[in-house]
Amino acid sequence: MRLPTRLTRALVRLLLAFSLAAGVMLVSSTVNQAAADGCFTWNRTLSQGASGEDVRQLQIRIAGYPGSGGHLAIDGAFGPATRAALVRFQQAYGLSADGVAGAQTFNQFYALQDDDCTPIHFVYAELDDGCGGSGFDGGPLSESATRFNALKTMWQLEALRHAFGDRPLIVNSGFRSIACNRAVGGASNSQHLYGNAADLAAGSQGFCRLAQQARNHGFGGIFGPGYPGHDDHVHVDIRTSNAWSAPNCGIALTELAAAEEPDI
Ligand code: ZN
User: Which pTM value belongs to this model?
Assistant: First the structure.
């Protein structure tokens, strides 16, 4: 039998080089998977006392977990309320609920967010101009501020959706421009003008269960069955004071809700 020729040895070296390169690529793609996220990548573990843009991005994603009747400030400062919301988020997704955001929490965010930073089950088009137009301009706020409000609304809707075992929510109406709001007879102070609101169809959850559950996910405005004009949808919005009314669902009229114009 002949010993390996120079050509054979060269081939072996080549194959070895290829397999090493493939191995390196495999390892690096595993390590960098999270870093390849198209929306936002967290680069450090976050716990109480931290502050910065990464905390703010965390808060946007857990704002639907402030506890019953609560509202989480999106201020970039990781305080006790952020920690409590994070624990609830971690519990909701079966993660270790330690109130510290590390790889496990961030990977859950990566799994939940699209490249445009919306949660995977919602898109901007569901919440943009309710009169058949598109986009978030023509309201009292800037286009970008309105769009950001819609983003926050979607993350809270994602939390509401998850609470029902990830059954779909149907959004009938979101942002309305001033002209659109006037055309549909909306209240002059409607939260729809600001990108803060969504009108939900009954879906498989039913109006009352949606209205009741929304109280746990940071929605300050909740109007449903029994409140004038709201027997065929549940209105939720992300204002940070609680104006709730769905008398047919056991949600009494709050003082703030009583001050609302009925058609909001
Ligand atoms: Zn509404």
Answer: 0.86
